[in-house]
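Q: Structure tokens for this one, please.
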Amino acid sequence: MGQVMNATSDDLPAVSRTLAKAFVDDPLIRHLLGGTYDHRRAELSFRMLATSMLRHGTVLCTEDRSAAALWAHVDAWKVPITEVVRQVPVVVRAYRRHVFRALGVLNRMERCHPHEPHYYLEVIGTDPVAQGRGYGASLIQPMLDKADAEGVGAYLESSRDINVPYYRKFGFEVVGEIHHRNGPMMWPMWRDPR
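A: Here is the predicted structure, written as tokens:
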């Protein structure tokens, strides 16, 4: 299993490439990109998210950058309007004419987001050639340990139903469904502190 580290801005190109590879068959990313997968635009989208998370959370990655997770800190999951404005040019380049679709998805996700104190696992992914090595667990468990020590919950949204059992192994449970207009469903999942 690879050693986990806090990513810096120097790691973001590699982290973004890894996440873009990990989400090639993700229905939500395909929906956001207009129904097809464009690796370059997906990478740009993940670079935007990771850049924002460096300012408002933690970006974890393995030493070889083949797996990464974006975690928002307690009470920092909602992106400040200043960050949204700063990212507009990148959002437009990533989502092009589907930018309003992307904003609608974000809005629906925010409306379903819990208000109790929690750490938010916004994105986690492993390059397909490195899957099955325990990298996901190594990127999840340290933050869950931190949440437990602080007595707060953890939250994520799964965009693939086949991933729900994986997250259950860490104590997450489905707490609803998020339906996107003409798009895929998501499963919000919550974990109480232990």
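A few notes: Residues 10 and 82 are 23 Å apart (CA to CA). The first strand starts at residue 4 and ends at 6.
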